[in-house]
Amino acid sequence: MRAVAGTDFGVHSPRWLSRFGDATRLAERYRVGRVLLAGDAAHIHPPTGGQGVNLGVQDAFNLGWKLAAQIRGWAPDTLLDTYHAERRPVAQDVLDNTRAQEELHSTEPGPQAVRRLLTELMDFDEVNRHLIEKITAIGVRYDFGEGPDLLGRRLRDIDVKQGRLYDLLHRGRGLLLDRTGHLSPGGFSDRVDHLADPTAALDAPGVLLRPDGHVAWIGDDQQDLDNHLCRWFGKPAD
Ligand SMILES: Cc1cc2nc3c(=O)[nH]c(=O)nc-3n(C[C@H](O)[C@H](O)[C@H](O)COP(=O)(O)OP(=O)(O)OC[C@H]3O[C@@H](n4cnc5c(N)ncnc54)[C@H](O)[C@@H]3O)c2cc1C
User: Which intervals hold domain FAD-binding (predicted)?
Assistant: First the structure.
């Protein structure tokens, strides 16, 4: 501390010391056959912003229901591969923002000027919100193809008539939120719960949630819903 800061700040007699560097690495593939990587095994980065645990837990949350589906025999062929496709870009983004933050720690005039500029920009609510959503991972949106902005995002924990949405997701099943009164999970009801008339707070006629709470479909057409049920939940029961 004396060498770096010119003072020891009065700190003495440590009980525990740890060290870390600026290592920034990302596995090329999250899945090779039956081997899957999650957490720090898949990505490491400096601890700036305290993002490592959340990133790893969200990997596990993304992967858990897919592994369960595979073991239970109903997973569509491509489901396990979506783990790499969805989670690697999220880690890439975290690595980018920790790298950028490391640059800002430098005492060189260039990074210091960028730091001052960023401080100015953070006076804008929209910039702040963007950075907060990035660092808390609330802004994560998986690429499920063309669609409304909500598609691919985790639905927020809204109040529903039956309680809180996230309590209903504890069962680890899919969930169809249906304000139309005519949608049905049909032959998927062993894997997908149906919540009719859930709440006016839901700004869509019908929403299909995966077990990890991400929005897999939005709409009001049963045929379109059936296609998406097959995409995420395999074949319907007889
Ligand atoms: C100094 C520092 C500060 C940090 N601060 C924060 C923070 O504030 N917030 C935050 O979110 N993250 C922080 N992180 C990052 C966070 O600690 C990691 O991202 C997180 O612990 C990774 O969890 P993990 O389960 O993937 O891996 P690990 O925690 O590394 O767990 C892997 C486990 O596997 C065990 N293991 C290894 N090989 C074998 C084997 N062959 N057989 C059996 N077991 C084995 C290891 O002993 C270890 O217990 C920090 C990291 C550091 C270094």
Answer: 3-98
Check if 39 has its Cβ closer than 6 Å to any atom of ligand 1. Answer: yes
* β-bridge mates for residue 215, sequence order: 209
221 within ligand 1 shell (Cβ under 6 A): no
pLDDT in tens, 143-197: 999 999 999 999 999 888 888 999 999 999 999 999 999 999 999 999 999 998 7
Instruction: Please write the tens of the pLDDT for every residue from 105-121.
Output: 898 999 999 999 999 99
| Contact criterion met (CB below 8 Å) for 196 and 178 | yes
Token couple for 174 = 């899919």
CATH of the domain at 198: 3.40.30.120
54 lines ligand 1 (CB under 6 A): yes
Answer yes or no: do 171 and 228 share one domain.
yes
What contacts 105, CB < 8 A, 6 or more positions away? 48, 111
Q: Which domain holds residue 49?
A: 13-136
